[in-house]
């Protein structure tokens, strides 16, 4: 039985940052985490040979000032994502090298891609990040899927496939899962499309020494015993002057609560009084993206010897995107691949052996048969994770932004809402998690 | 602590029907209901003067053979929905009388409506109700919203408004909330568009004497002490040979469990082992529709004296649809109205006084100032209902049917799934609730 000023639900980046800001301001804080680890949607994997690479979220990049600031405070260093050599594309059955973000295509395809990208960026810049529904065209844009926009505005099959891949890479979802308005919001939230998709100067530019889960581990060191693991919050009661939270282990009392979990997880906590109908319905309409992140370790990063970067994009699944996720200071090579959206849900029901075989087949398609013989293989299906139930973040289908989704971040009595889904800048990213945390902490500080 | 062959979660039509079929076959059954009443999404309201009318689901109609059969078994009678006199439309600021389903419009608007209806019905008939994703065009149809289809295929503003109203009436949702594939599925599931929308020969043809909640009350009489109220299931554990269910009141053990609750409610039960990732994600992607059902009682059904049926359709909200919901044998008149979709979520956060004033203003717009002075007013916001969190049923946004939604009705170990959302015929209606119940009961009977 604890009694604190503020209880934070969720020990991911957002929850722990909120807790730390409150602790720095002298408030008594408790963080209740359902899992037996901190990190939320970040998770380090330690290979048998000792190297650490991420099986959850991992990247930071320019314009992500809040997470970069936090890394500085925590004395965490970054290093550049491996980005030397040629990338590969597999389109029309042919493997081709390229450099940069967009594969080599025929001129008319490149023009098609370029025009669509220009239009997306131009429309995105018109969005009010505080509430995208304020745009005069929001009713139209929020009533169509991104798939529909692609069908209308992108003429060539190859360019369409590129936008499908971009959707997978950015949202862990298919274009049909997304409101077009949300896509515009997300592009502006993450600066522009080049920044979202890029490695150098983009959202995939840098990695964190020791793995991104260290952010949460460092915050936890500073918060000490305030962080309680394996305490899933099952129920809460709001009274006039406090909130009581019931976990599997006991009960905690706080003046205010900050939720720092994906929207769908808030629904799963029995609340008294009930959440208002509109808020429950809003949370119902924000499902998580779906991704299986896969890594194979090899004796060496053998693709580098052939002048390859380890980055591939492909119209053949289930692994359509790969990266070189090797660890600096190690001679070993790590290939990383993503299975996303519909395919992630399909492959989540296969057993691990089937998944490993198929992922390695995909790696071999890009990097040769040597990829079939890793030292070690690991994957993680984030839909199976008890307290995330999907990654990277919540998706906004048509009709959600236009019906009050900006109110997601409004407090509800003594309940406040953090988590990257409540961010206006870099929603869905570490940076958004920090922005949301600092906004929620400031709300609470003003009130307690 | 109970110990039964089968525990059913949810005492709506589907759950109680499943339980009764199992009891009839000699199985020991328990029904656990979270609420302090049976009925699920049906709910009778008793006015001060004693008349009973429904503040939840209420209608049955032709081709709904399963619910009509059940009514026969339970000795429940039906009566015709009041459908005499002129209907009213309010379009372009003008109130006009009409008969039948479609208001009087200019010829080119009627042609526009007729052609769109013809196309919808024709496409719907091609759908495989067992799995709409089998249609060759399913990837296209499931990647667009119904709003997008209307924008492309319906040319006149008035005809578009008619389809907006049809979407509200049938789904309690806006066209942008719905996958076009789901709309086609739903039309075929409910026979055709005329049947879905119609009163005579349609889904609104008949009402149940004593109110539709009597279906559940009669089933409960037959099941006796097997039905346990105020027992919300919070957690369950599946082991090799049984399932343990934990409610606020205690624990129950069963060989098999049938869920007969909306998909979003399944998510809120803590499960051990966790539901598979694909199933959790599927449930996340099935939010409930939103409706506030409103009734006002008057000394007489005064609109009838003016030759009006009490049915209105309007492009002005929040009440865009009304019905005469008077009770046979009473001299009183009851007007009933629906607030649906986006507007239901908006109005759910207003207080009851504001809602009453606005609803009566809408009634007055159609039926004159006399409507401002009811004897009694009542409304119910179904998003606020703890164990439904929305009505009429779950919505299928783009990308859900195409990514395995037909598996919603697959068992998961010892868990089976009923509820109208798992029906193939008349999904979302009482009839679908019965079909799903009988299918789930048959599954369990074959195994226990």
Automatic annotation (TrEMBL), chains A, B:
<dbReference type="Pfam" id="PF01593">
    <property type="entry name" value="Amino_oxidase"/>
</dbReference>
<dbReference type="InterPro" id="IPR036188">
    <property type="entry name" value="FAD/NAD-bd_sf"/>
</dbReference>
<dbReference type="InterPro" id="IPR001613">
    <property type="entry name" value="Flavin_amine_oxidase"/>
</dbReference>
<protein>
    <submittedName>
        <fullName>Flavin-containing monoamine oxidase AofH</fullName>
    </submittedName>
</protein>
<feature type="binding site">
    <location>
        <position position="338"/>
    </location>
    <ligand>
        <name>substrate</name>
    </ligand>
</feature>
<dbReference type="InterPro" id="IPR002937">
    <property type="entry name" value="Amino_oxidase"/>
</dbReference>
<feature type="domain" description="Amine oxidase">
    <location>
        <begin position="13"/>
        <end position="445"/>
    </location>
</feature>
<dbReference type="InterPro" id="IPR050703">
    <property type="entry name" value="Flavin_MAO"/>
</dbReference>
<feature type="binding site">
    <location>
        <position position="14"/>
    </location>
    <ligand>
        <name>FAD</name>
    </ligand>
</feature>
<dbReference type="GO" id="GO:0016491">
    <property type="term" value="F:oxidoreductase activity"/>
</dbReference>
<feature type="binding site">
    <location>
        <position position="233"/>
    </location>
    <ligand>
        <name>FAD</name>
    </ligand>
</feature>
<comment type="similarity">
    <text>Belongs to the flavin monoamine oxidase family.</text>
</comment>
<feature type="binding site">
    <location>
        <position position="421"/>
    </location>
    <ligand>
        <name>FAD</name>
    </ligand>
</feature>
<keyword id="KW-0560">Oxidoreductase</keyword>
């Amino acid at each position: 039985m604890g009694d604190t000023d503020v209880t934070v639900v969720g020990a991911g980046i957002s929850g722990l940052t909120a807790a730390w800001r409150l602790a720095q301001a002298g408030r008594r804080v408790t963080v209740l985490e359902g899992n037996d680890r901190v990190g939320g949607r970040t998770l380090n994997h330690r290979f048998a040979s000792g190297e650490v690479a991420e099986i959850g979220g991992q990247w930071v990049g320019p314009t992500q000032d809040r997470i970069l600031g936090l890394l500085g405070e925590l004395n965490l260093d970054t290093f550049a994502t491996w980005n030397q050599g040629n990338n590969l594309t597999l389109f029309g059955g042919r493997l081709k090298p390229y450099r940069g973000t967009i594969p080599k295509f025929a001129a008319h395809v490149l023009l098609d891609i370029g025009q669509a990208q220009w239009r997306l960026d131009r429309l995105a810049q018109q969005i009010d990040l505080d509430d995208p529904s304020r745009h005069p065209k929001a009713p139209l844009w929020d009533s169509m899927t991104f798939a529909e926009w692609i069908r209308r505005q992108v003429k060539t099959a190859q360019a369409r496939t590129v936008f499908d891949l971009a959707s997978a890479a950015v949202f862990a979802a298919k274009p049909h899962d997304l409101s077009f308005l949300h896509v515009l919001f997300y592009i502006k939230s993450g600066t522009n499309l080049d920044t979202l998709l890029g490695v150098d100067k983009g959202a995939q530019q840098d990695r964190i020494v020791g793995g991104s889960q260290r952010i949460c581990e460092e915050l936890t060191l500073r918060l000490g015993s305030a962080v309680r693991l394996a305490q899933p919050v099952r129920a809460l009661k709001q009274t006039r002057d406090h909130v009581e939270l019931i976990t599997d282990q006991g009960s905690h009392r706080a003046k205010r609560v900050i939720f720092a979990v994906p929207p769908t997880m808030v629904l799963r906590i029995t609340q008294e009084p009930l959440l208002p109908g509109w808020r429950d319905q809003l949370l119902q309409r924000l499902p998580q993206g779906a991704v299986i992140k896969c890594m194979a370790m090899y004796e060496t990063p053998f693709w580098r010897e052939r002048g390859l970067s380890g980055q591939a994009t492909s119209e053949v699944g289930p692994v359509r995107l790969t990266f070189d996720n090797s660890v600096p200071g190690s001679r070993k090579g790590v290939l990383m691949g993503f299975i996303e959206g519909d395919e992630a849900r399909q492959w989540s029901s296969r057993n691990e052996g089937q998944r490993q075989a198929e992922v390695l087949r995909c790696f071999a398609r890009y990097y040769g048969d040597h990829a079939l013989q890793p030292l070690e293989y690991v994957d993680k299906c984030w839909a199976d994770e008890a307290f995330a139930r999907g990654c990277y973040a919540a998706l906004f289908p048509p009709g959600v932004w236009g019906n009050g989704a900006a109110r997601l971040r409004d407090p509800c009595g003594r309940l406040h809402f953090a988590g990257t889904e409540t961010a206006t800048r870099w929603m869905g990213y570490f940076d958004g998690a920090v922005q949301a945390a600092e906004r929620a902490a400031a709300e609470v500080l003003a009130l307690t």
